[in-house]
């Protein structure tokens, strides 16, 4: 009898072990303090634990549910190259109908109002939209989808500031976005952050000589700073050990990077590692964390946390403030070939002037189009910005006085592009 029950006991034991293994990440995550969660989030180790833990939605964890609506009538109004009272009246009627019935499709209502008013839609929009109703409406829908996609990207960047585990951000219909933030209790701050206007800035990029000079200054700060002891301790708490070796790059601990031998005993069993250029690490510890990407600076994904922490150090901020400069990362991460024949994900980092030359407040309209034949941007997607009189005056001065320099297009403190100024732009 006993022998017959043995297989059952074995099966029960296996199931129990599997259940404990499966639920352990959830238990571990629930036991983390707020400070531990923040530290792991900044280090980039929290995401792996969150993927393994059982997800708790708004019904179990509480939080915030927000529905945002893209103002499509304003978008259409901004896209119009000609406007008159009849066109404005159409948009007013569309707004009124949408307010009465939120389930209506904006584009169907707009097309119906244009038809009822007897307006020729091709008179109000760029000729690239075509000369008939269907062509224009198809292009307007594309513009609307692009606008919502841009809003989704901005919202994702802002939600990251809350550190929410797998937030829900999704489109609903053709003009609404649903945001669910589980576990967030500060609803006022969340709404203010999500609904505030994105900050668009045009900031000049400093020269390579000034960039190298600032990197040298930060290298000197790192080699002699007491702040790094606390920084190293904060990074040395929670990562599993992982070793990687490549030809010119190597993985070392943060304590090794900063030559803090007193911390070596505490870090032997954890991974507080960063990827450095072993040819630079001895004399230029900060520069060794970076990579050359042509005219740009690359930051390996593994090094983003330590780079940000170094730039937040009081001594480093003082150097940057004195030079009226700032370092900002690119919005997108890119894949580059490394010295080992493989690939490595990196952000670009730019050394910019401390103050912007212009902000998005001077931009009246923005239009997407293709570069003309024979130009350097032929066949490429470009954005045409129309500025008000003040913006045009400043932009003319900035571009005329900085030919050959780069200007960074910055949205919410992330660089989206940094083109070279080729000539003076007088008409904004």
The rounded distance between the terminal residues' Cα atoms is 91 Å
How much β-strand is present in the residues?
15-25%
The average pLDDT is: 78
The number of distinct structural domains comes to: 3
Radius of gyration: 27 Å
- Oligomeric form: single chain
Number-wise, the strands total 16
What general outline do the C-alpha atoms trace? flat
Structural class: alpha+beta
Put simply, the count of helices is 16
Largest sheet: 5 strands, antiparallel
Poorly predicted runs of 5 or more residues: 231-247, 260-271
Share in helix: 40-55%
Verbal overview:
With 428 residues, the chain is α+β, with helices and mostly antiparallel strands. It folds into 3 domains: 2-53; 61-196, 2-Layer Sandwich (Alpha-Beta Plaits), CATH 3.30.70.3400; 208-346, no CATH class. Helices cover 43% and strands 21% of the residues. The chain is built from 16 helices and 16 strands. Strands 7, 8, 9, 10 and 11 form a 5-stranded antiparallel sheet that branches. Strands 12-4-15-16 form a 4-stranded antiparallel sheet. Strand 15 (407-411) and strand 16 form a beta hairpin. The longest helix is centred in the first third of the chain and has 29 residues, at 2-30. The N and C termini lie far apart (91 Å). Mean pLDDT is 78; it is low at 231-247 and 260-271.
């Amino acid at each position: 009898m006993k022998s017959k029950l043995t297989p059952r006991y074995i099966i029960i034991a296996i199931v129990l072990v599997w259940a404990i293994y499966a639920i352990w990440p959830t238990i571990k995550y629930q036991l983390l303090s707020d400070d531990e969660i923040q530290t792991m989030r900044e280090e980039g180790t929290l995401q792996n634990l969150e993927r393994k833990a059982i997800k708790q939605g708004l019904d179990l964890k509480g939080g915030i549910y927000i529905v945002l609506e893209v103002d499509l009538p304003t978008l259409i109004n901004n896209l119009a190259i000609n406007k008159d009272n009849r066109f404005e009246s159409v948009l007013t009627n569309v707004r009124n109908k949408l307010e009465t019935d939120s389930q209506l499709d904006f584009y169907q209502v707009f097309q119906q109002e244009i038809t009822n008013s007897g307006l020729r839609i091709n008179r109000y929009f760029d000729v690239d939209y075509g000369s008939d109703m269907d062509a224009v409406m198809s292009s307007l829908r594309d513009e609307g989808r692009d606008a919502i996609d841009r809003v989704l990207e901005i919202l994702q960047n802002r939600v990251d500031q809350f550190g929410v585990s797998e937030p829900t951000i999704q489109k609903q219909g053709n003009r609404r976005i649903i945001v669910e933030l589980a576990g967030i209790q500060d609803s006022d701050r969340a709404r203010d952050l999500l609904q505030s206007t994105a900050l668009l800035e045009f900031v000049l990029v400093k020269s390579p000589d000034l960039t190298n000079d600032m990197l040298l200054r930060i290298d000197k700060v790192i080699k002699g700073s007491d702040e790094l002891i606390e920084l190293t301790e904060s990074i040395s708490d929670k990562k599993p050990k992982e070793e990687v070796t490549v030809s010119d790059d190597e993985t070392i601990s943060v304590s090794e990077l900063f030559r803090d031998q007193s911390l070596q005993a505490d870090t032997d069993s954890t991974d507080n590692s960063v990827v450095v250029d072993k040819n630079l690490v001895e004399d230029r510890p900060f520069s060794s964390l970076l990579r050359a990407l042509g005219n740009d600076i690359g930051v390996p994904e593994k090094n983003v946390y330590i780079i940000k922490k170094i730039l937040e150090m009081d001594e480093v901020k003082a150097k940057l403030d004195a030079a009226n400069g700032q370092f900002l990362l690119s919005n997108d991460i890119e894949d580059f070939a490394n010295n080992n024949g493989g690939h490595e994900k990196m952000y670009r980092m730019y050394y910019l002037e401390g103050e912007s030359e212009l902000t998005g407040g001077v931009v009246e309209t923005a239009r997407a189009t293709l570069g003309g034949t024979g130009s350097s941007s032929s066949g490429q997607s470009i954005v045409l910005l129309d500025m008000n009189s003040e913006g045009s005056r400043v932009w003319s001065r900035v571009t005329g006085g900085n030919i050959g320099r780069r200007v960074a297009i910055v949205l919410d403190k992330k660089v989206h592009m940094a083109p070279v100024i080729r000539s003076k732009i007088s008409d904004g």
